[in-house]
Amino acid sequence: MTRVKRELLRDDRNGKVAGICAGLADYFGWELWLIRIVLVASVLMGFGGFLVVLYIAGWFVLEKKSVAERRTGNAASAGFSTEQYQTSAVVDRPVELKTRVWQRGESPRQALLHLNQQFEHIEQRIRSIETYVTSNKYQLDREISRL
């Protein structure tokens, strides 16, 4: 099994203030609500000054996730239209099944729906390929390329 190198980044898409909690949740693979509850509970229990300093330091030190994705060159910057990227991102992303309450992922019902959506997308692509291969246009293109 290959391990993916993860970076601690600020998740500016899912974050509320600076994306620090969302970045931590993404890095550790936990639910975002759990990280936020731990932060608020820690502030209420007296660790407020220390955590506020850490939060502000993270705000200045950590890079935004969207900037890091653009820097590394993902599918959105590779020439895909926004609609194609959104469709491929939803269909092509792996299904993460939640096994514990605090872990990030999909419930079994959502995972099944997601897999069903992936199979429907693949079936539509195969049907369009079949339609093209069995058409006269394919045969004509093949004959022209042989010349």
Set out the fold topology.
Blueprint: H1 20-28, H2 32-61, H3 65-72, H4 82-92, H5 108-133, H6 136-146
Helix pairs in contact: 1-2
Tell me what portion of residues adopts beta-strand conformation.
Answer: under 5%
Please report the total strand number as a whole number.
Answer: 0
Q: What does the radius of gyration come to?
A: 22 Å
How much is the average pLDDT? 75
| Number of domain modules | 2
> Which term fits the overall shape?
elongated
* Main beta sheet strand tally, sense and closure: none
What does this 3D model show about the protein?
With 147 residues, the protein is mainly α. It folds into two domains: 1-72, no CATH class; 94-147. It contains six helices and no strands. Helix 1 packs across helix 2. The longest helix has 30 residues, at 32-61. The radius of gyration is 22 Å and the shape is elongated.
Annotation keywords:
about 150 residues, mainly alpha, 2 domains
What's this entry about, in short?
This protein is an all-alpha fold and 147 residues long.
